[in-house]
Design brief:
single chain; eight-stranded parallel beta barrel; alpha/beta; TIM Barrel
Length: 294
């Protein structure tokens, strides 16, 4: 189930128009741009897509738009997770009907279930769909950090096939890879090289909005065993990775895309546009990398 999910999957921003409605024309154009520039998979309505402030109806329309834009060229992964299992099940079923290729479900946040509750949550979502399910482990946002043992236990469910690992503890990732054949995707851009050097599946990325071909090159070099060249390419992007997280994601990446002329609009409250200082950090990195004029 994992072989067709892709290597560099971009967690897409959600373009908004001046009235803060989802701009489907720009969403379609952005999907096409990403697929032409290093991405071989797209994630819709994840954290970078401002999922907390999207309605279910908006998410489903976005899934349909991106599935149509991808036109079978690349997998489309739908963000369907929440901290309400019943809601996640309903959205997952509706997403499957939209023609997506997989779903991404985040570890339940805020209500802090015990580990057995988290396991039951993911198993219940998986049982509601025939699609591959990617577990999103992001302790920085969810408080809970799923242990390698818990993730390996989830991997015994047939259609739980991968984890988006945003736990920076690489020893935990090593342990997971010892225990399970779950596909491991880097959940933070600065983990892409480390995950792929360990034989991981790739990354679900933010910086690939602007340097997708270079991130795809890191992946290619790792697959071919040229870790020295991959590490050098990765090191050249670390300042960009930092700039795109100078404040809460997706504020900086939306600033970057607007500076590059992609016109993805603003953000929905409680997210706010980048300050002039934050935008200057992003702009400086775009200039350094030759993406904008000096």
């Amino acid at each position: 189930m994992t072989k067709n999910l892709g290597t560099i999957l971009t967690a897409m921003v959600t373009p908004f128009d001046a009235a803060e409605a989802v701009d489907h024309d720009r969403l379609e154009r952005l999907a096409g741009h990403l697929l032409a520039n290093g991405s071989d998979g797209l994630v819709v309505a994840g954290t970078t897509g401002e999922s907390p402030t999207l309605s279910d109806g908006e998410k489903l329309e976005m899934f349909r738009t991106v599935v149509s834009a991808a036109a079978g060229r690349a997998p489309v992964v739908a963000g369907t997770g929440s901290n309400d299992t019943r809601h996640s099940v309903e959205l997952t079923r509706a997403a499957e009907a939209c023609g997506v290729d997989a779903v991404l479900a985040v570890v339940p946040y805020y209500n802090k279930p015990p580990e057995r509750g988290v396991l039951a949550h993911f198993r219940t979502i998986a049982a509601a769909t025939s699609l591959p399910l990617i577990v999103y482990n992001i302790p920085g946002r969810c408080v809970i950090n799923l242990s390698p043992e818990a993730l390996a236990e989830l991997g015994r469910t047939e259609n739980i096939v991968a984890v988006k690992q945003a736990d920076p503890d690489l020893a935990a990732t090593d342990r997971l890879m010892e225990l399970s054949d779950l596909a491991v995707y880097a959940g933070n851009d600065d983990m892409l090289f480390d995950i792929m050097a360990r034989g991981g599946a790739g990354g679900i990325c933010v910086a690939s909005h602007v340097v997708g071909p270079r991130m795809a090159e890191i992946a290619r070099l790792c697959r071919e065993g040229d870790l020295e060249a991959a590490a050098a390419e990765d090191a050249a992007l670390h300042e960009l990775y930092k700039a795109l997280f100078v404040t809460a994601n997706p504020i900086p990446v939306k600033a970057a895309l607007n500076l590059l002329g992609h016109e993805v609009g603003g953000l929905r409250l409680p997210l706010v546009p980048a300050t002039s200082e934050e935008e200057a950090v992003v702009a400086a990195e775009l200039r350094r990398l030759g993406l904008t004029d000096p």
